């Protein structure tokens, strides 16, 4: 079983020493925990990307082991930081460490946990982690390890479906003991059996055809019947279309969905961050994302059946 060491250091010399000690001890990879004690860097208001990229570069020079920095979830641009860490040489990223927060004991009127700001987590944290993994994984060239809110096998499956390659568990072990690992693995196996999957790799992800559209765009309306028909075919092949609205108001896009008999999920990208992270600045655009969560094909204008037939079959045939 591979073992990762998890380092938390605060000087360049300590990172080098930690990497060397990990290597000598036989670790298979190193997690760089750059935001512990919880939120130190966040509270210090330093440039998180530069701080983490610096640690990655030092660690890469000190060891041949894979280096996996652990990101904080409290960043203004998690996608930018994840891509910046990949450029700095990271071999994977962990998303995320726990939030730094505050709770107050009403009896004593004093802070709970460490007498002040502390790491807060729990099952509630999973939705935030899933949201960012699903957005970042299609364009990130390195694997994502999910961390946050796993209380059972279903949660671990959700992380894999969102695009993670591995899942970390902490709070559940603290609460339930090591036996929880066996329970989580059993629940994952039950899920796989119910769905007819042979292995974890088989449910790691669906092929997704992501169509960015707007109700005011004529080519979007012209291609809508093709997509509505294609969804019925894809639904039987472990794949789905996901629509994402672009600079549209909710009433108009809801009408569009109804008029065009669209049955696949449609996301409202209210402030455009999802669409921008895919480099989209005009519609329609369609991305085909494979089971590993990587973009395999892109159509920058109105699509047709010929394009779908040329691109989709080989991507559907790939296994994880
Ligand atoms: C008691 C406790 C101690 C933790 N200590 C560390 C730590 O030293 N370094 C670290 O990177 N994360 C630490 N974490 C955060 C976990 O590694 C993990 O990222 C986080 O708890 C989210 O996952 P979970 O919902 O499974 O707990 C700690 C979490 C808990 C509950």
User: In percent terms, what proportion of residues is strand?
Assistant: 15-25%
CATH superfamily of the largest domain: Aldolase class I
Q: Which word captures the global form?
A: globular
- Mean pLDDT equals 90
Task: Please count the helical segments.
Answer: 12
Strand-pairing-aware structural class: alpha/beta
Order of helices and strands: EHEHHEHEEEEEHEHEHHEHEHEHEEH
The poorly predicted ranges are none
**Name of the top-level CATH class of the largest domain:** Alpha Beta
Q: Termini separation (Å)?
A: 21 Å
Annotated CATH topology of the largest domain: TIM Barrel
Number of strands: 15
Q: How are the strands of the biggest sheet laid out side by side? A: 1-2-3-4-9-10
**Shape-level CATH architecture of the largest domain:** Alpha-Beta Barrel
What compounds sit in this structure? flavin mononucleotide
Main β sheet profile: 6 strands, parallel
- Taken together, the total number of domains comes to 2
């Amino acid at each position: 079983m591979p073992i990762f060491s998890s380092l938390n250091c605060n000087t360049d010399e300590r990172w080098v020493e930690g990497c060397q000690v990990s290597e000598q001890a036989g670790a298979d990879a190193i997690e760089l925990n750059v935001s512990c004690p919880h939120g130190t860097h966040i509270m210090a208001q330093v440039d998180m990307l530069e701080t983490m990229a610096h640690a990655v570069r030092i660690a890469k020079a000190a060891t041949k082991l894979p280096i996996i920095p652990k990101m904080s979830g409290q960043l203004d641009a998690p996608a930018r930081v994840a891509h910046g860490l990949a450029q700095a040489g990271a071999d994977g990223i962990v998303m995320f460490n726990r939030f730094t927060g505050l709770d107050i004991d009403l009896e004593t009127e004093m802070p709970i946990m460490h007498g002040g700001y502390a790491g807060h987590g729990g099952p509630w944290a999973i939705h935030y982690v899933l949201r960012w993994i699903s957005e970042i994984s299609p364009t990130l060239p390195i694997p994502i390890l999910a961390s946050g809110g796993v209380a059972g096998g279903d949660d671990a499956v959700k992380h894999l479906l969102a695009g993670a390659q591995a899942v970390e568990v902490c709070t559940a072990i603290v609460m339930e003991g090591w036996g929880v690992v066996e329970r989580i693995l059993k629940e994952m196996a039950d899920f796989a059996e119910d769905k007819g999957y042979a292995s974890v790799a088989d449910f790691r992800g669906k092929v997704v055809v992501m169509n960015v559209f707007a109700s005011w765009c004529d080519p979007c309306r012209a291609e809508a019947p093709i997509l509505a028909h294609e969804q019925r075919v894809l639904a039987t092949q472990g794949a789905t279309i996901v629509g994402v609205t672009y600079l549209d108001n909710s009433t108009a896009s809801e009408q569009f969905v109804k008029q065009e008999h669209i049955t696949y999920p449609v996301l409202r990208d209210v402030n455009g961050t999802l669409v921008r992270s895919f480099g989209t600045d005009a519609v329609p655009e369609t991305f085909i994302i494979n089971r590993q969560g990587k973009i395999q094909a892109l159509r920058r204008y109105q699509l047709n059946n010929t394009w779908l037939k040329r691109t989709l079959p080989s991507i559907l045939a790939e296994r994880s």
